[in-house]
């Protein structure tokens, strides 16, 4: 007998149709579960990536801030030293240079300045 006969018969409608529907529902549920697991995995991957990206950005900004502060400090020191150097070659710069030196010479010591 042909398949169409079984599909149209009462036997198929009573006994085989519910079994095939259950089997189809189980397959659909399994596929939905797999897709749900994949979605959860991708969501976790995205969250972890965002956390790592945020931490890396924070570290990078901290390092850039340290470099900026160091640069500004060195720039300030350079400007101070440049001004002192320029003052050294101005009029009476040698005398001002000697006054700026932090040294204590006792009275009985002779200081010699080479020219």
Walk me through the structure.
- This protein has 115 residues and is mainly α.
- The protein has one domain (7-100).
- It is 81% helix and 0% strand.
- The protein contains 3 helices and no strands.
- The protein has helices at 3-8, 10-88, 93-100.
- The longest helix is centred in the middle third of the chain and has 79 residues, at 10-88.
- The mean pLDDT is 81.
Mass-distribution shape: rod-shaped
**How many DSSP-defined strands?**
0
Number of separate helices: 3
Overall pLDDT metric: 81
Fraction of residues in helix: over 70%
Helix-strand makeup class: mainly alpha
Strand content: under 5%
Quick one: biggest sheet? none
Rg value: 44 Å
Low-confidence stretches: none
List the secondary-structure elements in sequence, H or E: HHH
Distance between the termini: 126 Å
Domains (count): 1
Q: Could you give a quick summary of the protein structure above?
A:
The chain is built from 3 helices and no strands.
How does the SSE layout of this entry go?
Elements (H helix, E strand, L loop, with lengths): L2 H6 L1 H79 L4 H8 L15
Notable characteristics:
mainly alpha; 115 residues; rod-shaped
